[in-house]
Design goal:
4-stranded antiparallel β-sheet; glycosidase; Helicase, Ruva Protein, domain 3; elongated; zinc ion binding; multifunctional enzyme
Length: about 290
């Protein structure tokens, strides 16, 4: 599932191509909206909300889409070959005189009244890349269920919106805790750092074509996708296992030396806390890192 920075980039591309322009083509290829016609209306803006996309259209309408695992939006110039997938995977086409935006494999597509957007995104926690960001509220949400594993709490978009599986793994590494550590066992000083650290990572990457959490030229990520290669800090082999988030299993990566806490299948005591570090966790890159 795309991370919040990927959705933010998609929204920016769509906004640049469509906002302020009149739709000359409208094709919603789902049965419920097969007769809906948006041609002649002006696109007002395209706004990301966590991992959701809201395309607001003249007349008080909003096209709500979500990419989930396989969805994508592509923007094409007139005469450009469409290369996002076969025609039967197209779910929506929005065309103007200058560009055509095509949504492929979109599992969520609904046309709402703009006044009803809360039905689609009202359940989300503070958006890491949005104007509603509130670190105190995000931390309060995360700690509401102290027995919940850290990794699962980070993925729950009701706590804070925008973290996917990659950032989950990288954040846990930077915090020095395994994703299976009950979030209530995270030392208070590290828990307090979590919202700002998550925001810093996503902001550092929202304008980059290649995501990086390390600031290094030779390796972009600390743990995600790196098993069984050696940890960049301690050279221990990175491990991987599945972590359920209530709906599916996700490949999770961690360093058993740099990250304290239970491993998969362990049942720690509610009072268990990871030992204090002797060295500070790595510092994520700033937005100006090459």
């Amino acid at each position: 599932m795309p991370e919040g920075d990927t959705v933010w980039q998609t929204a920016r591309r769509l906004h640049t191509a469509l906002a302020g322009r009149v739709l000359t083509r409208s094709d919603l290829r789902v049965p419920k909206y097969a007769t809906a016609d948006l041609t002649g209306r002006t696109v007002l803006d395209v706004t990301p909300r966590g991992k959701h996309l809201l395309t607001r259209i003249e007349g008080g309408l909003t096209l709500h889409t979500h990419l989930r695992m396989d969805g994508s939006w592509k923007v094409y110039a007139p005469g450009e070959r469409w290369s996002g997938g076969p025609g039967h995977q197209i779910r929506v086409i929005l065309g103007t005189a200058e560009h055509t935006a095509v949504g492929y494999r979109l599992p969520v597509l609904e046309l709402l009244r703009s006044t009803d957007e809360h039905r689609a995104v009202g359940h989300l926690g503070p958006d890491l890349l949005g104007p509603d960001w509130n670190p105190d509220k995000a931390l309060e949400n995360l700690l509401r269920d102290p027995a919940r594993p850290l990794g699962e709490a980070l993925l729950d978009q009701r706590n804070l919106a925008g973290i996917g599986n990659i950032y989950k793994c990288e954040l846990c590494f930077l915090l020095g805790a395994t994703p299976w550590l009950p979030i209530g066992d995270l030392p208070a000083e590290r828990a307090a750092q979590l919202p700002a650290l998550a925001k810093k990572l996503l902001e550092a990457n929202r304008d980059r074509p290649a995501r990086s959490t390390t600031g290094r030229r030779d390796q972009n990520l600390y743990v995600y996708g790196r098993a069984p290669r050696p940890c960049l800090r301690c050279r221990t082999s990175i491990r991987t296992a599945n972590q359920g988030d209530g709906s599916r299993e996700r490949p999770t990566y961690w360093c058993p030396t740099c990250q304290s806490g239970p491993a998969p299948g362990a049942k720690p005591s509610p009072s268990r806390r990871p030992p204090s570090r002797t060295t500070p966790p790595p510092t994520p890159p700033s937005r100006t890192t090459n």
